[in-house]
Amino acid sequence: MKVSIITACYNAEEFIGDALESSLSQIHTNWEHIVVDDGSTDQTIQIIKKNASRDPRIKLICLDK
Fold it and tell me: Is the separation of the CB atoms in 41 and 12 below 8 Å?
């Protein structure tokens, strides 16, 4: 069974790394973590992209304003 984790965020650079690391540390390995960014203006998107480049189960969706 595949588990989908969906996180909505906006200017979450302080917390998004921990959220992604939590997914990466799970025993269950059949998952995807979809992060929906609502136009962050801080480093949130760069942090997500860095993690997504290391693990293809992390996916980024950016909403345009």
Answer: no
Rounded Cα distance between 1 and 36, Å, is 22
Residue 35: CB atoms within 10 A of its CB come to 26
CA–CA separation, 47 and 65 (whole Å) = 20
- Supply the pTM of this predicted model: 0.92
Q: Which residues contact 30 (CB under 8 A, 6 or more apart)?
A: 1, 2, 3
pLDDT in tens, the chain (65 residues): 999 999 999 999 999 999 999 999 999 999 999 999 999 999 999 999 999 999 999 999 999 76
